[in-house]
Amino acid sequence: MQISARGDYAVRAALSLATAYPALLSTQAIAAEQDMPRKFLEAVLADLRRAGIVRAQRGAEGGYTLARPPRDITIGQILRAVDGPLAGVRGLRPEETHYAGAAENLPRLWVAVRAAVRQVVDEVSLAEMASGKLPGHVRKLIARPDAWEPR
């Protein structure tokens, strides 16, 4: 799975908002804290606002806040809001792929890959991520000896 810059920035911005929740943060404050380009951050926050993940308040005391408590927003929801479906195969959803011959069973593998990604990103909330208290099944994955080794 490849996490885009947009996805990375969205999750980082949401984590900043989670730690400040329910207070408002300006784009400038988030950009400074997370070392992000402000214009790009504004576009990412607009995607999150359209998805109902954040809400904006205009004015001198304005800024952004999460639309729901951090425990009710998953990392997967954020990634989908800015990048669309979690797993795609040539622009198709895994269940939409069809192959003949030796590759006929490949769609099953693509669906399994998507399910594995969902088991992590859809089961970790902003609150868990911000606190570092990840679910047990995610901690087990991180603790595997090969988890941190590049392949």
From TrEMBL:
Gene3D superfamilies: Winged helix-like DNA-binding domain superfamily/Winged helix DNA-binding domain. Keywords: DNA-binding, Signal. The keyword DNA-binding applies. The keyword Glycosyltransferase does not apply. Residues 1-31 form the signal peptide. It comes from the Bacteria. It holds the Pfam family Rrf2. PANTHER family: HTH-TYPE TRANSCRIPTIONAL REGULATOR ISCR, WINGED HELIX-TURN-HELIX TRANSCRIPTIONAL REGULATOR, RRF2 FAMILY. NCBIfam families: rrf2_super. This is Rrf2 family transcriptional regulator.
